[in-house]
């Protein structure tokens, strides 16, 4: 399984918000954003900061994708 952040990228497009703006608004690091760009795991604390900044819950920004067998 892996985490996909495609929902977040779509939300940013819909909000006309850049990744840099999200970094500033949510007070996450550029490293966190880089990890998300590669669909890598990040700390729940960072997800909470993003959700708080966007006024949403986890399921609006990420989803778990099962491995293909």
UniProtKB/TrEMBL annotation:
Residues 37-61 form the HTH cro/C1-type domain. InterPro entries: Cro/C1-type_HTH, Lambda_DNA-bd_dom_sf. It comes from the Bacteria. Transmembrane segments: none annotated. This is Helix-turn-helix transcriptional regulator.
